[in-house]
Design the sequence.
């Protein structure tokens, strides 16, 4: 049991960070407002979770101007993709083991 | 000693079950976020209601055009029908342009309200999967008209429209699937009553759109606004 639990990534224990990463796995780019809307968070709360993931090197930030308004978009990094897949695999084998 | 050991294993068992529930919850969360973020959600029920009203107006125009042709006991015979065909085709094309304009206008407005870009990837996937079968259906209908198979144009339109909706439903609101099925069933029924084509057509493109728009507004849009 212990070895499976070790593979579960602490960074994804937060529901918000798990949600952010899930969205970035199926979309190459997601902007700040989309995160905000789907996850239902305040700006500050969301920003801090995004910072954490950025600090871990799991996501990348891109800032640019669209029609003179700043738009911030996020994308997954290779490291983030790898970490998420490992986390998912750990969850999967944990559930499998428990139901056996 | 024995008791202590029992307590120890029980403790781990409870912990294990709790962790398992957490793991299942996590997987559910991942799935829901992936789905929500990859679907086109800038759709407005108002546009469906308006399109339904336009369709009813359009079929009224078509009905009056057809009424000016004296149909024989055998239904619309081809030579007489061909005289009004251009009028009907122009009406249909105008209606299509009007419907497309309406849905784009309301979708762009809804996306702007949410401070999202309208033409994102989910939108692209939805429109591609919708217009691919629909375009094929449109060209097929033209071929039918040119060959004089007037009676089965209405069922073919309903069928292809239903198929397009079912195809696009995977990338947008799931309830579109139901609307697609209803259009398809109506199209199949209509195929058995070709002389009632216009009636079925206005039921499918008019009444069903209005009903779906109302349903969408009440069950989905109002909840979205509240949250």
Sequence:
């Amino acid at each position: 049991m212990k070895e499976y639990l070790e593979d579960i990534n602490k960074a994804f224990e937060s529901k918000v960070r798990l949600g952010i990463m899930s969205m970035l796995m199926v979309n190459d780019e997601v902007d700040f407002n989309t995160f905000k809307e789907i996850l239902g968070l305040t700006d500050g709360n969301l920003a801090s979770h995004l910072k954490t993931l950025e600090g871990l090197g799991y996501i990348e930030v891109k800032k640019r101007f669209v029609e003179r308004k700043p738009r911030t978009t996020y994308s997954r990094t290779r490291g983030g993709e790898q970490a998420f897949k490992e986390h998912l695999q750990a969850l999967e084998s944990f559930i499998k083991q428990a139901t056996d | 000693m024995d008791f202590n050991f029992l307590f120890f294993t029980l403790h781990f068992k409870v912990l294990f079950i709790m962790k398992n529930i957490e793991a299942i919850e996590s997987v559910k969360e991942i799935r829901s976020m992936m789905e929500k973020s990859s679907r086109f959600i800038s759709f407005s029920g108002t546009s469906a209601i308006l399109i339904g009203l336009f369709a009813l107006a359009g079929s009224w125009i078509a009905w009056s055009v057809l009424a000016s042709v004296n149909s024989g006991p055998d239904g619309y015979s081809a030579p007489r029908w061909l005289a009004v065909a251009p009028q009907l085709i122009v009406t249909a094309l105008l209606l299509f342009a009007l419907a497309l304009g309406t849905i784009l206008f309301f979708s762009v407005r809804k996306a702007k309200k949410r401070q999202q870009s309208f033409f994102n990837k989910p939108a692209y996937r939805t429109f591609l999967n919708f217009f691919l079968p629909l375009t094929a259906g449109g060209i097929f209908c033209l071929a039918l008209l040119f060959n004089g198979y007037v009676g089965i144009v209405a069922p073919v339109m309903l069928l292809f429209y239903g198929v397009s909706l079912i195809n696009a439903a995977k990338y947008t609101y799931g309830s579109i699937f139901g609307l697609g099925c209803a259009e398809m069933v109506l199209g199949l029924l209509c195929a058995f009553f070709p002389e009632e084509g216009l009636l079925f057509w206005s039921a499918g493109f008019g009444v069903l759109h209005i009903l779906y728009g109302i349903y969408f507004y009440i069950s989905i849009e109002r909840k979205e606004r509240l949250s």
About this structure: The mean pLDDT of chain A is 86. The longest strand of chain A covers residues 59-66. Residues 13 and 87 of chain A are 10 Å apart (CA to CA). The interface with chain B takes residues 1, 5, 8, 12, 15, 18-19, 22-23, 25-28, 30-31, 33-34, 37-40, 66, 88, 91-92, 94-95, 98 of chain A (CB under 8 Å).
